Amino acid sequence: MNSVTNKVKDFLLKLYLLPANSSTRLAMSVRNRIFPEYLHLRGLVLAIHNFRSKGEFGKTILDIGCFEGNTTLFFLKELKDVNVIGFEASSQSYRQAVTTTEKYNAIKIENYALSDFLRND
């Protein structure tokens, strides 16, 4: 979808949820039922906002396995004043992620795989 369609959709959703917005949990529950594809990301953003409000959060988000950069962009737009580093091992997805995020100075995309073990060659 294009950005105008997304903005209209967001506006209509906010208008629809206006009565539910007195309760953040209720509003998120309804929103997640309408847009289940973002359920995990919205929950993560809520948790990050919670950490930030307690002063327990830095300014850099690592998006490991950023695929084509859409989640990287999502984090930047939702969290505003952060830097996001996306890691993507696939060369094709990496190139698309760079294209998707190229106009945002707060995003850097790296063509690396990250793991919990060290390879000894």
Topology (SSEs and partners):
Elements: H1 3-17, H2 24-34, H3 39-53, E1 60-64, H4 70-79, E2 83-87, H5 91-101, E3 107-110
Helix pairs in contact: 3-4
Describe this structure as you would to a colleague.
With 121 residues, this protein is mostly helical. The protein contains 5 helices and 3 strands. Strands 1-2-3 form a 3-stranded parallel sheet, with helices on one face. Strand 1, helix 4 and strand 2 form a beta-alpha-beta unit. It is globular.
Runs in which pLDDT lies below 50 for 5 or more consecutive residues are: none
Q: SSE order, as H and E?
A: HHHEHEHE
Return the structural class.
mainly alpha
Q: Over all CA atoms, what is the radius of gyration?
A: 17 Å
Shape: globular
Question: In summary, what is this structure?
Answer:
Helices cover 51% and strands 12% of the residues. It is mainly alpha-helical and 121 residues long. The chain is globular.
Could you list some keywords that capture this structure?
single chain, 121 residues, mainly alpha, three-stranded parallel β-sheet, 5 helices, 3 strands
